[in-house]
Amino acid sequence: MDNVLIVSKTSNGREIFLGGVNLRTYENVQLGPGHVGYAHPNDIPMNIGEIWKLELGRFSEMKISPPHTENWNIISKERTDQNLRPNEIRDLILQHVRAEYTHPRALFGGHIGFNENGKGFIDVNGCLLPYSIGFWRFHDPLELDYDNNENEDGNYYRSESGDFRVKYTGVANPESVLPPGTVLRLFLSQSYEFEGREVFWLLLSGWFI
Predict the structure, then answer these.
(1) Percent of the chain scored above 90 by pLDDT?
(2) Which residues, other chains included, contact 117 with Cβ-Cβ below 8 Å and sequence gap of 6+?
(3) Domain residues of the chain, as ranges?
(4) For residues 156 and 168, what is the distance between their CA atoms, to the nearest angstrom?
(5) Could you read off the pLDDT of 79-122 as tens digits, one per residue?
(6) How far is residue 1's CA from residue 54's CA, in Å, rounded to a whole number?
(7) What does the alpha-carbon distance between residue 189 and residue 12 come to, in Å, rounded to a whole number?
(8) Residue 36 has what pLDDT?
(9) Strand runs (DSSP E) across the chain, as ranges?
(10) What is the CATH number of domain 2-85?
(11) What CA–CA distance (Å, rounded) separates 135 from 97?
(12) CA 32 to centroid of chain Cα atoms
C-alpha cells in the first residue's frame, strides 16, 4: 500500500473525482472507486490535505490510454492521522513534484490551442502526450471572471489581458484572485466534440497559495 496525499476534489454536479500525489513515487494519480468507474459519490469522506494508505490497481475494463495515464482504482483504503495544510502541500509539490513557471500557451509542452474565448484545448487526433495532469505557476494573476460566469456552465478564471480563460471544477469556494506564483493544478478533460473535431479541454482543479 502507498501513502497518497489528496490534492484535488472536483465535481461534475453529480459525482466526485479525486486526485492525489503518490508519496512513494511523487507521481500524480487520479483515484477511481474500488469498482469499474472513475467517479465517487458526493459524500465520499476523503478530503484535500489528507494522507491515505491506498492499495491501487487497475481493472481490465478501465481504459488507460494517453494522455490519461494517471487513472487508478482504489482497491482498499485506510485513513492515516496525517493532514497537510495548503502551504505544506505547496511546499511538497515544489520540492518533490514540479511546478515550473510558464506562460499559458506553453502548457503541456506547447501542444495547447485556444478558442476565440481564450479556453485551452488539445486536439485528440495525434495527441502523444504521456500525461494529463500537472502543476504549473504563472507570472501573472488569474481573476475570477465575474462578468461572464453567470452565463457559463460554472466558474471561470481569466488572465488580466483576457486572452486566457479556464474553467474551475473544484468543490472549494473560488478565490477572487489567484496571485502570481500560485501553484495551479491543471488537467485535461475526457474528449469532447468541438467544431467538428475531438478535443481535451484544459481545466483547473485547484491551487495552493
Answers:
(1) 79
(2) 165
(3) 2-85, 89-208
(4) 6
(5) 999 999 999 999 999 999 999 999 999 999 999 999 988 999 99
(6) 5
(7) 11
(8) 65
(9) 2-11, 16-22, 28-32, 50-57, 71-83, 100-101, 113-114, 120-123, 133-137, 142-144, 155-159, 165-168, 177-178, 183-194, 197-208
(10) 2.40.50
(11) 8
(12) 14
Looking at this protein, which amino acid is placed at residue 66?
P
Distance CA 149, CA 162 (A): 14
| Three cell numbers, residue 118 | 481564450
Tens digit of pLDDT for each residue in 23-59? 999 999 999 887 767 789 999 999 999 999 999 998 7
**Which of 164, 202, 171, 160 is closest to 185 using CA atoms?**
202
Question: Which residues have C-beta within 8 Å of that of residue 185, sequence separation ≥ 6?
Answer: 7, 8, 19, 133, 134, 135, 204, 205, 206, 207, 208
The answer for residues whose C-beta is within 8 angstroms of residue 73's C-beta and 6 or more apart is 31, 32, 33, 34, 35, 56, 57, 58, 59, 62
pLDDT at res. 148? 77
Helix, strand, or coil (residue 107): helix
Q: Which three cell numbers stand for residue 90?
A: 505547496
Residues with Cβ < 8 Å from 199, sequence gap 6 or more? 121, 122, 123, 124, 191, 192, 193
Q: Which has the closest alpha carbon to 144: 179, 188, 112? A: 179
Beta-carbon contacts of residue 81 (< 8 Å; ≥ 6 apart):
none
Q: Which residue has the cell 500557451?
A: 105
